[in-house]
Amino acid sequence: MIRTNLSTRPFYNERAVHLWLGVIAILVAAATIFNASRLLRYTTSNSQQAQAAERDERRAKELREQASRLRASVDLHQVEFASTEARQANDLIDRRTFSWTELFNHFETTLPDDVRIVSVRPRLDKDSGFLIIVTVVARGVDDVNAFMENLEKTGSFFNAGSVEEHVNEQGQLEALLQTNYVPMGAKTPPTPRTGGGKGQQ
């Protein structure tokens, strides 16, 4: 005799099915969240890069405009003059006939006690050779004249004269002197010019 109760409900493993469905749902949710976060990150990054590129373009435009203004404001004659001065200075320094030591030895032996040298600037003139421009501070005109006379007595300085003179804040005479200079070993001295300098007597 069959004793099976056919009216009873068959048994299924529902918990395992629910568990797997839950795991799949979690994985799908995690993947969705990950993809959304990556999308948001890339969107933000692209926006920041676009803003940075825009800033760089504006900055580059400003720099180009500034460069154009600077080029327009450059005085070509002044640049050429500065280049010429630089070439002359380099030529002067490279010439073996010029010696700073020799020049300052002359100053040391000819400088009066009441005269002080502030600056020295040599220059190479195509016609007259070496031209020395000296700024001195002295007690008076007589001291400056004595210094120039002492220079010319050495035989290495010619046409010494004062180009500009004024009294400084300390009440001392500040004079800009100019003189031709023939270093030892140079071939010929420059031709003396007519007339004395501003401060000569």
Structure write-up:
This protein has helices spanning 14-73, 76-94, 100-110, 141-153; strands at residues 115-125, 129-138, 157-167, 173-181. With 201 residues, the protein is of the alpha+beta class. The protein folds into two domains: 14-74; 98-181, Gyrase A, domain 2, CATH 3.30.1360. The protein has a four-stranded antiparallel beta sheet. The protein starts with 13 loop residues before the first helix and ends in a 20-residue tail after the last strand.
Can you list the strand order of the major beta sheet? 1-2-4-3
Structural category = alpha+beta
**C-alpha Rg (nearest Å):** 45 Å
The share of residues in extended strands comes to: 15-25%
How much is the average pLDDT? 77
Given the C-alpha coordinates, what overall shape results? rod-shaped
Order of helices and strands: HHHEEHEE
For the record, what CATH class of the largest domain applies? Alpha Beta
What's the tally of helices?
4
Overall number of structural domains: 2
